[in-house]
Design goal:
alpha+beta; 6 strands; 3-stranded mixed sheet; Nucleotide Exchange Factor Grpe, Chain A, domain 2; 66% helix
């Protein structure tokens, strides 16, 4: 009987020990698997956050780049349009000056044909005043007559229609001017029609 009781006690102890061992192993496995799951989920979320941050940074960089390009394009457009406006204004002014120049030429021809006796009349004095007023208005607008007689011939300013030899002038010099030339600011509106000697 004693033997049977002893055997029963040992089997009960063994069973309890194995149950405890199984519980311990189960808890360890569960805790290990939980830790692994937490680590993997944390690392997944970290990666996801990094990816999202990288995407946002890339979008920000792209938007910054796009806005900078648009600002540069707008600045270029503004400068180009200002330049075109000034060029258009100069072209328009130049064309108006070209139309006025024949009127100035006619005034000069008319005043050149007046005799000394007629110069004292009120009509001639009025015409002279109108002519002077027109010339001064053109000068204020930036129109200047090109100097020709006695100057060296310059193909950019003068249009040579005659050539002759004359000892009184130097080489390649303008001796006579048949039609006045004019400049508007830095560009030639009309070349001087001249005679070149030597």
């Amino acid at each position: 009987m004693m033997k049977e009781e002893l055997e029963q006690e040992t089997t009960e102890e063994t069973v309890e020990a194995t149950v405890e061992d199984i519980e311990d192993v189960g808890e360890e496995e569960i805790t290990e698997s939980d830790e692994d799951t937490e680590k993997s989920s944390k690392s997944f979320f970290k990666k996801d956050k990094k990816e999202k941050k990288d995407k946002k940074d890339a979008q920000i960089e792209e938007l910054k780049d796009r806005s900078m390009r648009q600002m540069a394009e707008f600045e270029n457009f503004r400068k180009r349009s200002e330049k075109e406006k000034s060029q258009m204004f100069e072209i328009g002014a130049k064309s108006i000056v070209e139309k006025i120049l024949p009127v100035i030429d006619n005034f000069e021809r008319g005043l050149g044909a007046i005799t000394e006796e007629e110069k004292e009349s009120a009509f001639v004095q009025g015409i002279e005043k109108i002519y002077k007023q027109m010339v001064s208005s053109l000068e204020e607008a930036g129109v200047v007559a090109i100097e020709a007689v006695g100057k060296e011939f310059d193909p950019n300013l003068h249009n040579a229609v005659m050539h002759a030899e004359d000892e009184n002038f130097g080489e390649n010099t303008v001796s006579d001017e048949f039609q006045k030339g004019y400049m508007y600011k830095d560009s030639v509106v009309r070349h001087s029609m001249v005679k070149v000697v030597n």
